[in-house]
Design a protein that fits this description.
With 283 residues, this protein is mostly helical. The protein has 13 helices and no strands. The chain has a single domain, classed as Farnesyl Diphosphate Synthase. Keywords: Transferase.
Length: 283
């Protein structure tokens, strides 16, 4: 239940559980169709050297194609490989189109923010971005599994928001040089850190406190949503345990760097797997 990642590290949904071994075989085609939809949109928004105006035009056309497909129109040739299988899933599983549209609105916002080298004023503004860039993925997966109760959706949102925040704090060293500022301006001001300080990527007591504070914010969101694993039976419950522990493990590494994720991207390594599995079992 990972978020759609949009950082310039181009993870391409490396955490998205696409047709994984823990996923029931019957759900692998619809999950793959959702993945292809999001992955292609990410490529439009983030790959290559096209100017922002071209990316925005293509994302607008892609958005129009989504709504045309949902209305029953035959997909155009340009993205037929995406929208033909997605059309089948929209019919067979009654996917909420609004969730797919919200993903695209987040991609569009990301292009606009990057082009302007603009940041986020405060945490609620960044959380609204997460609500559209990350939370729809969890809700789409719960929809496929037939889980619709309000508490599960709230906990899913918390996990997906946490995963998006974790991705931001993991990728500071690659986002900031490319003009992507996800550390909220209000938090920067509170800790006495200016945008020029971040661009310099120098560790100071203030920048360390800022990064550690934001990492703790992400951890609290993850822990708020983690009880969802006890509501989901079978494979999805085990998959979600591993997703949660993967996110927490990244935060462990951010904490261990003590602010140096401004300069170095922490990664999950093969030797982290036993610890993550043990923690998942302990849940």
């Amino acid at each position: 239940m990972q978020p759609v990642t949009q950082s310039p590290s181009i993870t391409h949904y490396e955490n998205f559980p696409v047709a994984s071994l823990l996923c029931p075989p019957a759900l692998r085609p619809p999950i793959a169709a959702i993945y292809a939809f999001a992955r292609t949109a990410d490529d439009i928004a983030d790959e290559g050297d096209a100017p922002a105006s071209d990316r925005l035009a293509d994302l607008t056309a892609y958005r129009m194609e989504l709504h045309a497909t949902a209305a029953g129109a035959a997909p155009h040739a340009r993205w037929a490989g995406v929208f033909k299988p997605l059309a089948a899933v929209l019919r067979s599983h009654q996917l909420p189109v609004v969730l797919l549209d919200e993903l695209l609105s987040a991609f569009i916002q990301d292009v606009q923010k990057t082009a302007a080298a603009a940041g986020y004023a405060h945490r609620p503004e960044l959380l609204d971005y997460c609500r559209r860039s990350a939370n729809p993925v969890g809700r789409l997966l719960l929809h496929l599994y037939g889980v619709h109760d309000a508490l599960a959706l709230q906990q899913s949102d918390a996990i997906c928001t946490a995963l998006q925040l974790i991705n931001f704090w993991q990728d500071l060293s690659v986002d900031i040089p490319r003009g992507r500022f996800y550390l909220p301006e209000a938090d920067c001001t509170r800790h006495g850190v200016q945008q020029s300080d971040l661009l310099a990527q120098q560790l100071t007591p203030a920048s360390v406190a800022l990064v550690m504070d934001c990492a703790q914010w992400a951890r609290s969101e993850m822990l708020r949503g983690a009880p969802l694993v006890h509501q989901l039976p079978g494979r999805i419950g085990w998959e979600l345990r591993l997703v949660v522990q993967g996110g927490l493990r990244i935060l462990d590494k951010v904490d261990r760097l003590h602010g140096a994720s401004l300069q170095k991207r922490p990664r999950i390594r093969a030797w982290d797997a036993p610890l993550m599995l043990a923690r998942a079992l302990a849940m």
